[in-house]
Amino acid sequence: MTASIGFYQGSGKMASVRKRVLPSGKTRWLVDFVDPAGNRRNRNFDRKRDADAFLDQVKAQIRAGTLVMDDQTVTVREACAAYMESAAVKTLEPSTWNQYEQHVRVHISPRLGELLLTHLSERRVYEFIDSLTAEASAVMARKVLATLKRIITDAQRRGQVGRNVIIDKQIRVCGASQFQKRLPERRELQRLLAASDPDTRVLFLTAMLTGLRRGELRALSWDDVRFEERVIRVRRSARETGTIKATKTRKGHRDIPMGANLIHELKAWKLRCPTGPAQLVFPNGAGRVESGSNIWNRRFVPAMKAAGLVDQEGKPVFRFHDLRHAAAALFIEQGMGPKRIQDLMGHASIQMTFDTYGYLFRDDDRDAQAAEGVAARLLGSG
């Protein structure tokens, strides 16, 4: 027994969703259509709404010229392998590559590996998210979903799937709140400096007054500290592996002004700083690149605890990276405009500066005065 609901494609041939009752009494829904090459295609579904959704997807992809069928696609596992071997991924930072590889090996391939990309529906993705959230966490599910989205986008670029279901359906992970940026208060920064040992204090003070990223601080050499010119040149950054590379973007190359206080502190530190071949400003005890984890675990966390800047679980109330945000706030407080802040922070675009620090440029009193002026001009009062 069958019932049909159809539409006519541009070629004039009909595609349809048909209800089929099997001898067992089970109901199935058959999507039947003709692909752009003139081949008749069909697929069965347990639920009519899934069949309707698939038919809508087919219609849209036929119109866009992006339709990919099951015999033209690959499995999720094969798409993962191709993505991890791509040039774009191989040039990533080792720590980022390791994170993606772990997402694929531990989470994506075991759960979705044998599924064809063309069968990766909204429902399957949400089932994957629910499983991952239950076994790991919502935060991990969000990170893995982002990796899966990149893999599907890569496969889409290769012509192996017609759409990215995660983007098209705006799939999100509920309850996966990211660490919220927290701007340290001035008194908190002062408490952190007061609780730090003299050597660590110089590191923190430099971060607060320059806005350098942790990797940039780790790669900073004495040749880049230009006392006579009163600037710190930022040209390099350190990887987690300890190797040094150029900054993330061309905008990352910048000169940061130094005040008299920071110059004094750095000159005093230079006299007792461990020396090494690279002449680093903040090296480890052997004069080599300090690891990011050591800065966090051996310097930042102990100092935050000593300053009483921890929550009930003993975790710091803000991150080391938030010292960079504090620097930006101090720059803005001194009247520096958005373009200058972009330059000092090494942002690739002014949009990134506004997205990150736009709220700090707000002046409520000035805005209120402007609103009064607009009303006065419109209404002819005042």
Automatic annotation (TrEMBL):
Gene3D superfamilies: 1.10.150.130, Intergrase catalytic core. Residues 178-372 form the Tyr recombinase domain. Residues 74-156 form the Core-binding (CB) domain. Pfam families: Phage_int_SAM_3 (PF14659), Phage_integrase (PF00589). InterPro entries: CB (IPR044068), DNA_brk_join_enz (IPR011010), Integrase-like_cat_sf (IPR013762), Integrase_catalytic (IPR002104), Integrase_recombinase_N (IPR010998), Integrase_SAM-like_N (IPR004107), Tyrosine_recombinase_XerCD (IPR050090). The keyword Metal-binding does not apply. GO terms for molecular function: DNA binding. One of its GO terms (biological process) is DNA integration. Keywords: DNA integration, DNA recombination, DNA-binding. Belongs to the 'phage' integrase family. This is Site-specific integrase. It comes from Alkalicaulis satelles.
